[in-house]
Amino acid sequence: MRVNFLAHVFLSGDNFPLAFGNLIADQIKGKEINNFPFEVQQGIYLHRAIDHFTDSHPIFKSCVTELFPVYRHYSRVIVDMYFDHFLALHWEAFHNLTLNEFSMDFYSKLKNYDIQLSDELRRFITALIDYDWFEQYKSLDGLRAIMGQMDKRTRFDSNLALSTNELVEKYPYFESQFLNFIKPLIAFSKLKTTQL
After folding, report:
1. pLDDT mean across residues, the chain
2. Rounded CA gap, 135 and 48, in Å?
3. If we measure between CA atoms, which residue out of 131, 128, 141, 135 comes closest to residue 97?
4. Residues contacting residue 135 through CB under 8 Å, at least 6 positions apart
5. What is the pTM of this model?
6. pLDDT tens column, 51-96
7. How far apart, in whole angstroms, are the C-alpha atoms of residue 78 and residue 83?
């Protein structure tokens, strides 16, 4: 499960169906992908390619290693969230809309998208909009609140709610790692989008 929702939507460019597929990809299993329109399927494939690129990249691996002694297999999830925080924080360096404008536009499209969804996906989308997760990522308090919501949904003791402590302690390290990683990630995503 990957949870850097803001990054996945951002990396889809201006194509809403692609962004929608990229957003929901982790919740689509096996042949369920065939239930969606072609561009949404492409977004699901793009999401998986982005995750593979991210997991294989030395910068991301280094960040995961930093957290692994405490958070074990949840470390990747936490680094995803840290990176969404930094993307929100540095948003205007990467997009011509403000984060609020971008979020409101995307949420509006989500609400009006005429597509069959499972109850689980509807609940996820409702929570994303109602809690304004994209904007929440920007502040440490907002990030902590989202981590806390996720913590309640994990099957095992994840300590996600406490993981912003490490971010505060090593803030310059994680920020510089994000800033070194985001440009190659954008370049990869653009290339991959043309290949879909």
Report:
1. 93
2. 24
3. 135
4. 88, 99, 100, 103, 142
5. 0.94
6. 999 999 999 999 999 999 999 988 999 999 999 999 999 999 999 9
7. 9
How many residues make up the chain in this entry? 196
The two tokens of residue 134 are 């994209």
Task: Please identify every stretch of the chain with a pLDDT value under 50, giving residue numbers as ranges.
Answer: none
**Phi, psi for residue 156 in degrees, rounded to 5:** -115, 170
Give the amino acid at 31: K
CA distance 6 to 19: 10
Confidence at residue 153, expressed as pLDDT on a 0 to 100 scale: 65
CA distance 174 to 69: 16
Q: Which long-range contacts (CB under 8 A, 24 or more apart) does 129-135 make?
A: 132/103, 132/107, 133/5, 133/6, 134/5, 134/6, 134/9, 134/88, 134/99, 134/102, 134/103, 134/106, 135/88, 135/99, 135/100, 135/103
Q: What is the 3-state secondary structure (H, E, C) of the chain?
A: CCCCHHHHHHCCCCCHHHHHHHHHHHHCCHHHHHHCCHHHHHHHHHHHHHHHHHHHCHHHHHHHHHHHHHHHHHHHHHHHHHHHHHHHHCHHHCCCCCHHHHHHHHHHHHHHCCCCCCHHHHHHHHHHHHCCHHHHCCCHHHHHHHHHHHHHHCCCCCCHHHCHHHHHHCHHHHHHHHHHHHHHHHHHHHHHHHHC
